[in-house]
Fold this sequence. Notes:
The protein is built from no helices and 10 strands. By secondary structure, it is an all-beta fold.
Amino acid sequence: MSECVLHEGGVRPDHLVGRRLEHGVASWHLYGSEAPSGPLDVWLIDSEAVATRITTGSDWCLFLETSAPFAGFDMAESGRVEVASISGEAPFADHLDETESALSEMSAPDSGRIAMEITFDSGRVRCETWSGDLRLSSK
């Protein structure tokens, strides 16, 4: 079972297979002059203009839904959330204009999906939740 037990599944990640990654957007929490931590959310926008959001749930699951990227916002003394196109250092940036050819998922009994790997012709991107944070890496 890869569905999140709290979020009723969201969208199945296999809908990404066969679609070309046109664009990527991510959100980051920025606080003062500290470097941003990993992204909070990532939106993969495919060749059919469908935006799939990858994020972590409150139960530390890896959650996917179709939704448009939101605007950044200020949280006063708690910093701000910035939303922008992914750049060269982000794992998905290396795979823009490539077709997602395969996908594998890993799950845990109490929280559902905890990781997935999306395969492109030139490599893979692993998305996982780690202590409630979204982690992305390239292989």
